Amino acid sequence: MKLFAALLLFGVYLFQTPLALAQKEYEVDLSKLQKEIEKKPYALNGFFEFTPALLLLDQTSTIYDMQLADRHVGRAMDQYNSRLRLEGSYQRGFARLYAMGDGYLRNDDLGWSGRAHLFQGYLSLKFRPNTAVDVGKRVARWGKGYAWNPAAFIDRPKDMEDPQEALEGFTMLSADFTKSFTGRLKTLSFTPVILPVTKDLNDVLGKPGHINAAGKLYGLIWDTDVDLMFLVGSSRSVRYGLDFSRNLQANSEVHAEWAWLTSGESRATSSGLAGFRYLTADETTFIAEYYRNGPGLSEEEARDLYNNLGRGDFGDRSAQRLLGTQNLMRDYLYLRATKKEPFQILYLTPEISSIINLSDHSFLVLPGFTYNPVTNLQLRLRFGCLVGGANTEYGEKQTNYRLELRVRYFFQQP
Description:
This protein is mainly beta.
């Protein structure tokens, strides 16, 4: 009872204090208020997240045999992931400095692992409203696709399970030149890019010791966004790309993307996608994309790969091909649906997404929901289920089921 009385008195004090302060006469310091209204030249924000997960492993799968068979890992594995991301910028005149750092730490039955690295860090110089130059490590964000971007020649592949998550960029020198018009062509811009590749810089882009060039020509014509892209140089094969997106109505959009890779170490090939978004009157969003992965394996080639690995032939090239790509084969379908605040439950967004391999009919399905109970706090619960038979892409993954809870706390400078 004493504790209850103390809490009651404390609550009365908290309630009365603002009223007492409100009754006092005070003067407004206009100079101080002006300083608060003025935009600060710097910004700092980020988030911390903790993601515990339970993984149910497929001990008969090929990837389990390659990675975990000799490490005494059981049927189930607990995993604990922590991540800290910081993002900051400083603006002075026509110059803006921007940086994003990311670090994660993981603990599971295999022990501890982690990494801290710079996602982006570049200087942007905007000499005129229609002219800008960027130098440093940045993300180009080429392409119109949601889950895939075959024409994003100077970007890293998206995580198909989290396509909207931030990506690590490449070090480059780029510029943007934009001009507006009053006719059917509303906007025209050109983005030239220089990409050096060395042993320590942009090494995943191809052979080191070369300077490569890329470019994108963008136009808004007939209310349609259109891009033409290219990448030339000696680090990897020459590539050309095309994409477009157009709103059919206020609530619907279609997009497509195509890329042609000339012959390099392998045969010349092309990749492409086509997709749409649709928003219903009750704020349900549907996204669908078909992806044709030209460099991917045919069903017969994939079966031969799995058979060889199943016999214990873990050759370097075969293992790298299997473990180093999200899309092993050629034909995929991505589906996603989200519903905002169903049954008038505020700040709740249920979702379900699926990635289907149309060649071998295996698939991944990810139902879940996101909830923002208070400002700056986001909770996401997801359940992943991988379905497929022997010698299929998702049937041979090391995980059958995954349950995870992501707790993400956002912060920013006052």
